[in-house]
Recover the amino acids of this structure.
C-alpha cells in the first residue's frame, strides 16, 4: 500500500524490497533533537527574543525596528526623546518576545513529548496545534507591532535615511504616512 511504502521509505539507510539502499531523508539525524520541530538554534533564538526574519514585511517596507535604529542613532540624528523612547520600546519588546518565545518552545516540547510517549490522539493534537499556532502568531505580531511603534517615533526623513543606511534604497519611505 502507499502508506506502507511511505513509512518504509522514511527509514534512512535501509534497503528497499528490491535490495536497493534508500537515500537518507532530509530529516535524517534530526531524531536526536530534544524538540523535533525546532533546531537547537531556532529554540534558542525564540527564547532570546530574536527577530528571525519575522518582521521582514515591516522592515523591508520602510518600518524600521528599534535595534537597528539604536545602532544608527548618530547618523539618524535621534533626539534625546527619540533615543529614550526607542530604548524603552526595545526593552519592552525584548521582554515580550522572550516570554512568548519561551511559551512557544515549551508548547513545541510538550507536543514532541506527547508523540514520544504515545500520549496523543486527534483531539489533543488539534488543541496543541491551535495553541502553537496562536503562539507563533503572537510572536510574529510582537515583532511587527514593534516596527509599527518604532516608525511612529521617527520623521519621514529619518525613515528615508534609515532605509538608505540599511541598503534598502529609497523604498516607499518618502511617500510613507504614519
Amino acid at each position: 500500500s502507499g502508506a506502507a511504502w511511505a513509512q518504509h521509505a522514511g527509514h534512512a539507510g535501509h534497503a528497499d524490497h528490491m535490495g536497493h539502499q534508500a537515500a537518507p531523508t532530509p530529516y535524517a539525524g534530526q531524531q536526536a533533537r530534544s524538540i523535533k520541530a525546532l533546531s537547537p538554534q531556532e529554540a534558542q533564538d525564540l527564547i532570546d527574543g530574536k527577530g528571525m526574519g519575522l518582521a521582514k514585511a515591516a522592515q523591508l517596507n520602510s518600518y524600521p525596528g528599534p535595534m537597528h535604529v539604536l545602532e544608527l542613532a548618530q547618523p539618524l540624528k535621534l533626539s534625546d526623546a527619540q533615543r529614550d523612547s526607542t530604548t524603552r520600546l526595545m526593552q519592552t519588546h525584548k521582554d515580550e518576545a522572550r516570554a512568548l518565545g519561551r511559551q512557544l518552545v515549551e508548547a513545541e516540547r510538550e507536543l514532541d513529548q506527547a508523540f514520544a510517549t504515545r500520549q496523543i490522539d486527534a483531539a489533543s493534537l488539534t488543541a496543541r496545534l491551535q495553541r502553537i499556532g496562536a503562539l507563533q502568531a503572537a510572536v510574529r505580531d510582537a515583532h511587527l507591532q514593534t516596527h509599527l511603534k518604532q516608525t511612529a517615533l521617527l520623521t519621514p526623513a529619518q525613515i528615508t535615511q534609515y532605509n538608505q543606511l540599511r541598503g534598502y534604497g529609497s523604498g516607499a519611505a518618502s511617500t510613507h504616512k504614519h
User: Anything to note?
Assistant: The chain has eight helices and no strands. Residues 131 and 137 are 10 Å apart (CA to CA). The first helix runs from residue 2 to 9.
